[in-house]
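note to self — DONT lose this again. spent like an hour looking for the file last time. sequence + predicted structure for the chain T wanted, 511 res
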Amino acid sequence: MRIKNLNDFFYMVRFGLLTVSFPALFQGLWAGITAPFLEASYRDPRGGFRKKRLSLPQAFWNLCSPKKIPLPEDLGKVLSWENDGGVLRLSLERGFKEVKFLAPDVIRVRVSRKKMDGEPQSFAVVKGDWPPVSYNLEEGEGKLLLKTEEAALEVRLTSGLLSLFSQDGKALFKERAVSLEGEGTSLSCDFGGNAQFYGLGEKASSLNHRGKRFRLWNSDPVTYDYQSDPLYSSVPFFLVLREGRFLGIFLDNPSGTFFDFGSDSPSSSFGSTKGELVFYLFLGPSGEKVLAQYCELTGKPPLPPLWSLGYHQSRWSYDSEEEVRRIAWELRRRKIPCDAIHLDIDYMDGWRCFTWDKKRFPDPEKLSSELKKEGFKLVPNVDCGIKRDLNYWVFRDGVEKDVFLKTPEGKIYYGPVWPGYSAFPDFSDGRGGKRHGRALGLRQGDCPQFFAPQKRGEAPFPRGMPQRLRPPHGQGKLGGLEGDQTPRAPLRPDQVNLRRRTALRGHLDRG
């Protein structure tokens, strides 16, 4: 939404007052004010604030002192290489590189400062049992050449950089430089002068992203305009179209990532703020085939029910059962086809997930039954933030079963959401996923239709609040993965996809 006049401004003020709890707003503002004076602040579910304060001179020095920014380094030249079981492994002066053909037209590339053992850890990749691919390996003067029936891949031994060619010898992709910057890694590459770029999910931009730069870090802007970035969704996959041929690239890294399609230079680039640089090349050549290859790697969506494809009535929000009934009646009276009515968080008791406000929604089962007779599905929204309240059974159960996301120090990680400070289930952990799915199934007894998780990729925090409240360096613990592979965004698609699987499991377990 864009504020164009005074009426829009007052609407947004009223909107904020009605939807953002004053405790959460105050805590968010206070966190922003006090952040320079704190090295760390965590909340223990059975205790209060645990803080380490800085003195005023220390805080002033932190704000004013120049930060040491590490200079980017390249990988250097290739020191040695080996072709091991269909995987080409390169040892370079300042890192390691690995190239593997998963199929004749699908290639995985890994870059890391550390030596890589085994397969890369991933929440996005679902297929790991690829059949062996036969290719010819030729060693020439200063280069290696790998050939399959679909493509040829050239590796320069002076730098470890790759060039990809089609079957008929046309250049498809060429690495210009690999840069190691702090804990992050980035790649500069070239697709050709007239290439067009599509993808990355929801972006407030033109369909063709050529000449643009984007950051993938989930946010929840109350308003945004053309070119605003980042937004809700983070999908690190894009297609390249050049001379009628498509190429696809998927960057598999759950930390903060960026994609630059020639915003300030003829070359393109992409990279991550932490961890290995793992990306996949899908050779196409058609757009349909690229998408098929991508779905084979990351999984195909289930066939949606027919009713989900119809018109859904949704807004923020309906104040009571009677208002929902009135909307349903008006839709039928005006002969407007509609298959579902969505309820936003105002149906909850104090914005606690898996609860109903007994004053405004005293009989959800009856409401659901009435709407079902009229051909409506009732879809209450379920957020991922669980209110920090020891009198709230969901939070108490989560603490007892140790299923919430943690900081590196092992404390439960809290962020301000609509009910105030909230904890977040670790959907990558089987216990957290099963518990959340079970809660979905149990609480549907009040409303035997369907619960909808948040939008795909949607950040759970109100705008501007999470930045000061993330764990130090944005690093926590997720499903046993620590260090390089820990997500840094408030809720990346990896967690959102796992959460959707959890919701499905809850429905199926309930029968």
